[in-house]
Write a structure and sequence with these properties.
60 residues, mainly beta, two-stranded antiparallel sheet, 4 strands, 0% helix
């Protein structure tokens, strides 16, 4: 039997709405991290000031 390392799920920060522009349905909601990993969020800024997480980088 192989021991599995514990993982954790981290939710992405909520979007910041400046107007009623729709946020893409395929935006990042959460990521699963290994015990020794952290996440850096990549934000997209729309022309009206709305911001949402559109990607991430895993950091060991």
């Amino acid at each position: 039997m192989t021991a599995t390392k514990p993982k954790r799920i981290v939710s992405a920060p909520q979007p910041i709405f400046a107007s009623s522009f729709p946020i893409p349905a395929n935006r990042i909601l959460n990521v699963e991290l290994e015990e020794n990993e952290n996440v850096e969020w990549i934000w997209t800024l729309l022309p009206d000031g709305t911001r949402y997480v559109s990607g991430y980088t895993l950091v060991k």
